[in-house]
Amino acid sequence: MGRNEPCWCGSNNKWKKCHMGREAMKPFSPFEVEADWRRRGQKGYCSHSLDGTGCANGIVKSHTVQRRGGLSAIAEGKSLVMTVKPQSMRAMIDHEGRPPPIEIGIGKASVFPGFCGHHDDAIFKPVEGKDVALDAGDAMLFAYRAMAYERFTKAVHVENTMVQRQMDRGQPLPIQQAIQRQCHITLAGAKRSLAEIDTVMKEYRARLDGGSHAGFHHRAYRFDGLLPLVAAGAFMPELAIDGTLLQRLARGTAAFEQLTLTISSYAGRSVAVFGWIGPDDGASAAYVDAFDAVPDADKADAIMQIAFEQLENIYLRPSWWNGLPTPQRAHLRERVYAGVATKRRTPGGCSPSKPPLATAGIVESTRS
Ligand SMILES: [Zn+2]
Ligand SMILES: [Zn+2]
Asked: Where is this region: Disordered (predicted)?
């Protein structure tokens, strides 16, 4: 092919700047990939104003679970909690892609550079205090922050896929072609889910700016004690916890519902808040109904199972994790990684754990 022709791989770069001579290049090392991932993961923006209008005080490391209260309530020693997120490429390699949870400081836990200082303070003030009202207004703030986090991780995923296009360096042409084909598919999927989340984010922003909760729904629960876990994130409800099929994660143009879940605590009592924009009889509603049908005495255990299975932005009390029976730890680690490769989950996953992951009663529940 001609040096100045667009490269065959679809990168939109000229061949001479892309795949020409790639088989003779020095192979890309996993540590170069890691350095690149870290750089891209630190590139921030304000989720509330993508063009920076109304932003002030720079991009901050925004906590998805509030530091005072939520995180500090489960922290031990020098303000440490445990994270299930792989922290380095070395850990990935040493543990065959499934590293165990490790301790991190609460200053680093759950943060993402996804808001400017002004919007982070102004928007989330109502849920950053000593207590929280579990009404639609506060529930929408939890949901919005969880979606913003999810949007950020999807944007980083798109960037990472770009890096992976370099991983065929030093390989013969047929392998280059296979790798580029795979990257093309991954990138298309990543861009599609980013676009889906952007659509939902626009819906949240419009409601926040207009002071309306129309079409937003929530279910919130306050426990009578402290769960050893906090979490924030969003997922597409596919299977209810009783195994009912809710929506197929198939191709197509239908908008999939994004269900958010935040678990935090106020004044020593955990709260769990589900929120979504969409119908009150769709997949999200059905998912939350199945949770609601779990006996109150088993809800603490069930919400922890859901967090392990559906979210990766979860943080644990170290002594709780270390005190679990070994088979239960192994089982929970399996559940963390069950969704990594395929985002498909096992049905009927929510029978009570033995022993329960947590025990706490319900003292308040609200819905909208
Ligand atoms: Zn190329
Ligand atoms: Zn801003």
From this structure: 343-368
